[in-house]
Amino acid sequence: MTALTLSTAGAATLRADAVVVGVAKGAKGPVVAPGAEAVDKAFGGKLAAVLETLGVTGAEGEATKVPAPAGLKAPVVLAVGLGAEPDSRSAGDAGAEYAEETLRRAAGVAARALAGAKKAAFALPVAAAEDVQAIGEGALLGAYAFTAFQAVPKDARGPLGEAALLGAKPRDKAHKAAAERAVTVAEEINRARDLVNTPPNELNPASFAAVATAAGKEHGVKVQVLDEKALTKGGYGGILGVGVGSEAPPRLVKLSYTHSKAEKSLAFVGKGITYDSGGISLKPAGHNETMKCDMAGAAAVFAAVVAAARLGLQVNVTGWLALAENMPSGSATRPGDVLRMYSGKTVEVLNTDAEGRLVLADALAKASEETPDAIVDVATLTGAMVLALGSRTFGIMSNDDAFRTELHEIAEEVGEPSWPMPLPADLRKGMDSPTADIANMGERMGGGLVAGLFLKEFVGEGITWAHVDIAGPAFNEAGPFGYTPKGGTGSAIRTLVRLAERTADGDLG
Ligand code: BES
Ligand code: MN
Ligand code: ZN
């Protein structure tokens, strides 16, 4: 992966292939952002004017390369847009600061524009240690490329080699720690992206479990894998019912990170359908080509637990990966079958394509037995959530309004678009089954909320729980933007990690 360093050198004196500066949209044209004073000086104080002549406005997403004038060690200046200049009136005399997410995205745009460069100096505005983390994360996430399956590389240039952050202070403890956090979080997000992007003929429940086992060993996370035999013995009818049609049998993986001084415990539960064909209720062509992404929830949970361990957070975090491949075959679950779930409840499967809630139900019931302080499940659960919120925003549902609000605020804080969604009790009756305790499908309208109501039934009595539906943002089918590549995005990981951090700090509840 791209290296992240902090440098005390000036923007004009650091040896690099390019120096990155921020440019904002001012009232009277583009404005060069703080951090780039030395670069502007090398342009005789006319950098903003030069950029304006080139058509630069400072809008988010803009990336403009300009040959550097004499006086700069780097041969190229890359100006990245920061959007509207922050309002200094509302920020008071101390001056306005750029939002962390603005910096994260701009750094991502810069890293993408600098593919092939060995080293780039980032002279973006740094007002606090949090900005070091945001710029670091943006650069490392933006430089991501998934090339494992290209015999002939599509982009021979390769990713940016090193991002050297200027403006950060290498000897300042907070800045150093922020850079280290950025590396850990970005590496784990990129690990999750790799898993999501890996094609389903390579990544199945067993190989996913093997990857988790290896990573757990490396980072001090205990990993326990239940194979199909153990699942049968344990009565995991939901996970088995989804996986029974596949040649690749299901797994339930438990990841445990514990801290000796932890006072609180969290459980993260991830939907890990390594391929969702729909099963006997087969998805039509046009709806199954990207369904390798249906394990993105499990990948996010895996990455978040490993990140919590690497950061040494003072909290116990347990991850549950509910892994299965949803395939049609002579042994597959049929619409009309009744499954006996781990919790003891029975479910009439009316649609085998509503499989995520079945594997999650077992994992939620199992996770509940340990009575954690809170459970959060993450899942690419419903197309309905994509219809409701689009492809960049995840939905949050919960049995506790305060916890849902808390998660929404945390997501906002780490730059992940999200929105609180309700669990309207009236939608429950749509899942009434004449045969079993509940059906796995209900009313079509509000389908994302119906799925949430189904899950709620499998959460242990009195346990705080939230459900995060990432069906939209987990997989980017459009072009890259900001620090987000095409394909797997690593959605919800920063939110889970920040929740663990807050819980460790005792800020929660
Ligand atoms: N994995 C899909 C949901 C999905 C859709 C994820 C689009 C990512 C992008 C899920 O298993 C599914 O098929 N859900 C059905 C449920 C329905 C049958 C009740 C859906 O949303 O159509
Ligand atoms: Mn499905
Ligand atoms: Zn699915």
Q: What brief labels describe this structure?
A:
Aminopeptidase, Leucine Aminopeptidase, subunit E, domain 1, eight-stranded mixed β-sheet, binds zinc ion, 20 strands, single chain, seven-stranded mixed β-sheet, alpha/beta
Provide an overview of this structure.
With 509 residues, this protein is of the alpha/beta class. The chain folds into two domains: 3-168, Leucine Aminopeptidase, subunit E, domain 1; 190-504, Zn peptidases (Aminopeptidase). 33% of the residues lie in helices and 21% in strands. The chain has helices spanning 37-42, 47-53, 88-91, 100-113, 129-142, 173-197, 205-219, 228-234, 237-243, 296-311, 356-368, 383-389, 401-413, 447-456, 493-504, and strands spanning 3-6, 18-26, 29-32, 63-67, 76-84, 119-123, 162-165, 222-226, 251-257, 265-276, 316-326, 338-340, 346-348, 374-379, 394-398, 418-420, 438-439, 465-469, 475-476, 487-488. It has an eight-stranded mixed sheet, with helices on both faces. Strands 1, 2, 3, 4, 5, 6 and 7 form a seven-stranded mixed sheet that branches. Helix 5 (129-142) links the parallel strand 6 (119-123) and strand 7. Helix 10 runs parallel beside helix 15 (493-504) and helix 11 packs parallel to helix 14. The longest helix has 25 residues, at 173-197. The radius of gyration is 24 Å and the shape is elongated. The structure holds ligand BES, manganese (II) ion and zinc ion.
